[in-house]
Structure formats: structure tokens, C-alpha cells
What we know:
The complex is a heterodimer.
Chain A: H1 2-25, H2 28-53, H3 63-74, H4 95-98, H5 100-123, H6 126-148
Chain B: H1 2-13, H2 19-34, H3 36-40, E1 56-58, E2 61-63, H4 81-90, H5 105-108, H6 113-125, E3 137-138, H7 147-153, H8 166-174, H9 178-181, H10 217-226, H11 237-245, H12 252-263
Antiparallel strand pairs in B: 1-2, 2-3
Helix pairs in contact in B: 2-6, 8-12
Amino acid sequence: MSKILLFVFTFIFTNVVFAQNFSMDFNPEMVIKYRKDFMTAVKGHNNDIKAIVYGAVPFDNHLNIHLSSLEQMFAEIESLFPEGSDFGETNAKNAVWENPEKFKKAIADARQALVTFQQAVARGDKAKTKAAFKKFGRSSCGSCHKSFKKKQN
Amino acid sequence: MNYLYKLILVISILPAVSPAQTLIDQGRYIAQLANCYSCHTDIENEGKPLAGGRAMETQFGIFYPPNITPDKETGIGNWTEHQFAKAVRSGLAPDGSHYYPTFPYSAYKNISDADIKALTAYMFSLKPVKQMNNNHNLSWFVSRWVLPIWKMLNTDQGSNKSDKDRGAYIVDTLGHCNECHTPRNSLGILQMEQKFSGNEDLSAPDISSESLKDWSKEELIDLFSDGALPSGDYVSDHMAEVVEYSTSTWKPADLKAAIRYLQKQKTN
Lengths: 153, 268
């Protein structure tokens, strides 16, 4: 009898633990929240780059910090949109999941636009860097938002 | 030698491009100011330019803007210049039926004769695309017979200011900014006393001078040229298309005129 009770207890306990672990692995609401915070961080780096490039702040030496951060973050964008995270408080359009190849291409284009901008920064011409920044923003964040982000008030 | 001088003189007074080509180029620019491409192209499914077929979801149902390439069977290839002008400025099809106001003819009614002429020349210079139009999929209460009444109620989109204020002409008429950024009542009538105060149903923000007062002129130029917002974010969805296919192509003087006009618009 005690063996049966032990088996039942072990069975229930392991299932509860497994269920908890599963919810820790994939909680869609948390993924959506994390994704939005991640994108806010991208926006922050972008805005800081703009402030430096436009000459609004004297932190030219920070430019590479922001650029390398964006480089690493852009590499992770695709993973932020797993199946099952397409509901609730998300600003992502269904096209992210309905047209994954197009989404992957948009991310690849954004990463290429970043490389092109990094090259412009490396050349050190301030006027050209400003123009390159505008082009970078438009063909990375702007281009992706056109097809994959809902309008917000 | 005398012959050579005459030849040089003749070449020098010849126009670099023909008048017809100039008119087509002018029309292309009018089409960009009016953003015809964005609604009449199925961008999401990589449709052919201006061949229609894009699904536009609204509270009244799904509209499919038509093919406006000069294909004789499926487009506007058999239309006269007069019919084209009437469609754009009055929302009337050649058969006399009324277009639904997803086509912003209540804004386009003030397009000048010269601009309509150029736009017609451009449209009819395009390569015809044979593509059948989709039927709209609308709510039961939406019908064409109510449109004459609707048109009478929705007349107040500002007077023809094209001669007085270039910015007003670009923003109110060609750019048809009121269509999204001015609220509507339950009948879809624009509430012009709240001009540019935003339309929540379309997630279109307030763009009255009060809401733009903290924006610098350079920030507004960045918005219309690149879609960049002062926060570091970028516009999305339909406004991103407006930037890509329309405002980013505006001539600097037109962009400045439009910004000047927006900055002085006050909501009552």
C-alpha cells in the first residue's frame, strides 16, 4: 500500500514540477513583454546614435558601444517571435507568422543596412555619417515596421 | 561654317524633353503627392503597381481598390480624360455610379485642372496590366444608393486653397491627410471642427499644431523623409507606406510648405 502511495505522490509531484518548468520555458505573455522591452532597448540605442551623429551630445566615443549592441540585438530579433506569441498586447502584425520568409528577409536587410552604416561611420566623414544614419533607420527599423508592425496611436 | 552655327542654334533652342514627356513627369509627381500607389497596389502580395487588388479592412467591410492601369478590359483604358477627372474629383464612375469614399474624392475635389491633366497623362502612359477587380466584401447596411446623401453630408474638406497656400493644397487636397487624421462620426462623416485631432479607429494620431508644438522643423522633415519619430522609433503600417511612396518623394519646397501648414492648424 505504501509503495502505491509513494508512486502516486511521485507521479503527481513530478508532473507539477514538469508543468512549472514548462511554463517557465514558454510563457507567451512574458515573451511578448520581453520582446517589447527588447525593442524599446533597440529604440534607445538608435536614438543615442542619432544624438551623437547629429552632434547633440559630446559622446562620439560611445558610437561603437551602440553599434555593437545593435549588431548583437539584430541577430536575435527573429528568435523573439516564436509561434504562439501572436496574441494579446503585441504590436506585431500576423504577417510575421504568416509570411516568415519575408520576415527573415526584412531582418537580413536590416542587418545589412547596419553593416553599411558601420562602414560609413568607420570612414569618419560626419556629414556623410548623418546621411547614412537616415538611410540606415529607414531601411532597417522603418522598412520592417512597414510590413510587420501595427499602427499605434 | 554658317550652316554649323545655324545647327547649334537650332539644337540649343530645342527643349530637352518633349512637352508630352514633361506632362507625364508632372503627373507622376502628382500621383506621388496623392499616394495613388499605396491603395491601388497589392503591396503585401507583391502585386503589379496600380493594378488594384489590395484588401482594405474598415469598420464598413473590406474594400478592394480597382485596377487603374490603362488596360482596356480590366482598367481605365477606355476612359476619356473627362471621365477620369470626374472619377477623381467627384467620385463618379463612367456609368454614373458612385464610388465608395475609401477613394478620397472628397479631398481630391479641389485638384486643379492643370494637375488633373498631368495626372491623366501619366496614368494613360503606364503599361496596361490585365487584372480583374475584386468585389468589395461589405456589411449589409453599406450600399451605393446611400452615397449621394453621404456625399452631400461630407462636403466640408476646406475650400480650394491651391492658389493661396501650397501647403494646404498638398496636405488637404493631394495628400488627403484628413482622411485618416480627422475623426469621423458613426456615418463616416469627417468632423472638421476637430480637424487633425486624430482617429482612434484607424490608430491615426493627433497631428494638430498643438500636438506638434514640441516637434522641431528638422524632426518633422525626418518624419516625412524617413519615417523617423523623435523618440527613436519609426512609423509603421500604413503611415510607413505613406512615407515610402509619397512624402519621401516630395520636393523640398513642397515638404516645407506642408509642414508650415500643419504647424498652424488649430483644432477647435
